[in-house]
Amino acid sequence: MSGTSGSKRRLGWWWLWTGLGILLVSAVLAAVFLPLAVVRWLEGADFRRIASQQLSSLLKTEGELEPLEWSSFNVYSAGFRSRPEAAGPWLWNLQEVRTEISPRLLLDRILRFPEITIDTLTLSPGTRPQALPESVEGAPPPKPGSAELFREVQVGKVEVGSFSVKPCPASQGWGAKDLKISLRPAKQSADLEFQGGEISAPLAWVGVLQIVSAKVRYADPTVYLTALDARSSQGGGLQASGEYTPGKVPQARGRINWEKWSLPGGKIGLGLFEIPAKVSGDFVLQELRDGGAVGQGQVNLVEARLEPGKGSETVLGLLAALTGEPRLRGCPLTTARAQWSMQPGIYDIQRIEAEAPGLLRALGQARITGNKVTGQILLGLEKGLGAKVNALTGGECFRREENGYLVEPVSLYGTLDRPQNDLQAKLTAAMARTAVRTGAQILENAAGSQGGDAAKAAGQILNSLFAPPGR
Predict the structure, then answer these.
(1) Residue 147, pLDDT score
(2) Does the predicted model carry a pTM greater than 0.85?
(3) How many Å is the Cα radius of gyration of the chain?
(4) Residue 365 falls within a domain, yes or no?
(5) How far apart are alpha carbons 161 and 180 in whole angstroms?
(6) Contact 117, 159 (CB under 8 A)
(7) Which helix (H) or strand (E) is 105 found in, with range?
(8) Closest CA to 294 of 238, 251, 338
(9) Is the dihedral of CA 257, 263, 264, 270 positive or negative?
(10) Which residues, including other chains, have CB under 8 Å from residue 260's CB and lie 6 or more apart?
């Protein structure tokens, strides 16, 4: 009995060691051949089809990955490109894509990318922007079971070396060039950081923004701009924050602050005069209404200077010629500010204030509807200068005194590219009636003993305005 039991014990140990040996050999063979089999499958067309489908679904397009090159679990592709006729709002072009795939993908069927780097990413508007692909059209059906290979796709971080999109209707006129992007996606949300590069805006006063840094958070369906720091090519600074929720009735709100920003064209004046300046101020976006913005803000003109317009044909140029006052041909403004609001297609400038103390002051409001300009300005001249103009016009202009100025109401009208006012015509008409009534001598008398040049200039203006046409 003891011999039989010993034989059984030795046989048990033999089977145990045999089993362990088989397991060890299997493990060695698996370690040698399984990675080769996995890499061969990952390099194959079936895996590339699955990856193309996943990426197309994520980007709401239809496209294909270039062939994949594997080194262990590191993978490289020359890029991904949407098909030219792909449905969806955007056509995508990704170049030089590199990543690493977690080796656990065959165990838990979760496709993990700790980090994806993309050298360049370019967006262009889709040819069928209203159509969103529910499935990738034209793609060969995957082998049975392949479509369900991955339960989930997880991406830790995406780094884009250069992102670009040209301004177009699909981007509502916005564009980007050479932006560096860092993206950390999660379920129903994503965090983005931008550095360097440029953003071009559809707003003339914004122009091209040189991005210092920006942080954006997306929490489906809302986009939050948590911080933006940008510069203009002329050195002005801009900061912004806000949020946007798309939908049938899009919702948005936010705030923009800018400092020493260049004016479009460098000057402002509405046909009365011109003010070269830079602008500081803020704007609060309250809502979107019928596709347009609604909000209000204020501006302060920095380094502002009062000047006549091109060719001195503006009211300021005429007043400078009539009075002989050299400061009306160019002087600093100590006050130049306005409060304004906007709604779709309409800009309301509720309060305009501009003053060069002891010389000139302008108070009023204006409205810009499309390209049309209307408004009222109360223009004041220093009392002595106003009295000169009053005398030259036979007492018809600058009659009322207010806070040391003689003031004249001015109506604005016309268009943004050709703004007009009623004061210039009023001045010339009043002067013509005065000249006819009293003769040219009144010009010299009104100008005073030191005003010979002014009288001469006024006479030249009258002659050019009212002389009979040459034959």
Answers:
(1) 46
(2) no
(3) 37
(4) yes
(5) 5
(6) yes
(7) helix 105-108
(8) 251
(9) positive
(10) 235, 236, 237, 278, 279, 280, 302, 303
- Asked if the structure places residue 339 within a domain, the reply is yes
- Residue 437: inside a domain: no
Percent of residues, the chain, with pLDDT higher than 90: 36
Strand bridging mode 116-128 / 88-100: antiparallel
User: Which 8-state DSSP code applies to residue 31?
Assistant: H
112-136 pLDDT, tens per residue? 788 999 999 999 888 765 554 544 4
Give the single-character DSSP code of 99: E
How many domains would you assign to the chain?
1
Q: Give the whole-angstrom CA distance, residue 255 versus residue 225.
A: 10
61-82: per-residue pLDDT in tens?
889 989 888 887 788 999 999 9
Rounded Cα gap, residues 285 and 348, in angstroms:
15
- Is the confidence at residue 3, as pLDDT, over 80? no
- Tell me the pLDDT tens digit for each residue of 153-212: 778 899 999 999 988 887 778 899 999 999 998 878 899 999 999 988 877 767 788 999
Whether 48 maps to a domain, the answer reads no
Nearest to 359 by CA among 412, 404, 423: 404
Cis peptide before 469 (omega within 30 of 0): no
**Which residue reads 């300021």 in tokens?**
316
State the residue range of the domain holding 408: 257-320+327-431
What six digits make up the tokens of 178?
A: 């050479």
